[in-house]
């Protein structure tokens, strides 16, 4: 999320928020019943990238996110980032501040 509201509320002009925390029942709602296929892009560090003019984040490599993957994906990520097994603290740095649920909810209710 980008804008003066983020700057005023959190001291940063750009922040990240989980989409589920932005649902307000009016302008932002969750759509059920459709299938989604995810493609994760992995870089040396967490990145904000643009696809079709829309900002998106790369896969945030961390011990937690890697451990939640299916076995074949876990094995591939450990092969790419063996330091996850020995120095997991090296990872888990987000490209932008990541808002907690109550912060994102508050920001989503502000008028843009």
Write structural notes for this entry:
It is a single chain. With 112 residues, the protein is an alpha+beta fold. It has one domain. It contains 5 helices and 4 strands. It has helices spanning 4-10, 63-67, 71-80, 83-86, 101-108, and strands at residues 15-16, 48-51, 54-57, 97-98. A two-stranded parallel sheet has the order 1-4. Strands 2-3 form a two-stranded antiparallel ribbon. A hairpin with a 2-residue loop joins strand 2 and strand 3 (54-57). The radius of gyration is 16 Å and the shape is globular. The model has no long low-confidence stretch (mean pLDDT 87).
User: Which percent bin holds the helix content?
Assistant: 25-40%
Q: Per DSSP, what share of the residues sits in E-state strands of 2 or more residues?
A: 5-15%
Question: How many domains?
Answer: 1
Largest sheet: 2 strands, parallel
N-to-C SSE series? HEEEHHHEH
* Overall 3D shape: globular
What is the gyration radius calculated from CA atoms? 16 Å
Alpha-carbon distance between the termini? 11 Å
Structural class: alpha+beta
The beta-strand count equals 4
Record the strand order, biggest sheet. Answer: 1-4
Q: Poorly predicted ranges (pLDDT <50, ≥5 residues)?
A: none
Average pLDDT for all residues: 87
Count the DSSP helices: 5
């Amino acid at each position: 999320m980008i804008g003066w509201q983020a700057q005023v509320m959190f001291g940063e002009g750009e922040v990240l928020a989980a989409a589920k925390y932005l649902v307000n029942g009016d302008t932002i709602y969750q759509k059920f019943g459709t299938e989604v296929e995810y493609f994760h892009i992995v870089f040396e560090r967490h990145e904000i990238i643009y696809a079709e003019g829309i900002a998106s984040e790369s896969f945030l490599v961390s011990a937690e996110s890697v451990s939640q993957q299916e076995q074949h994906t876990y094995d591939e990520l450990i092969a790419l980032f063996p330091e996850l097994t020995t120095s997991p603290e090296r990872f888990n740095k987000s490209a932008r501040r990541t808002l907690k649920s109550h912060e994102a909810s508050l920001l989503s209710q502000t008028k843009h």
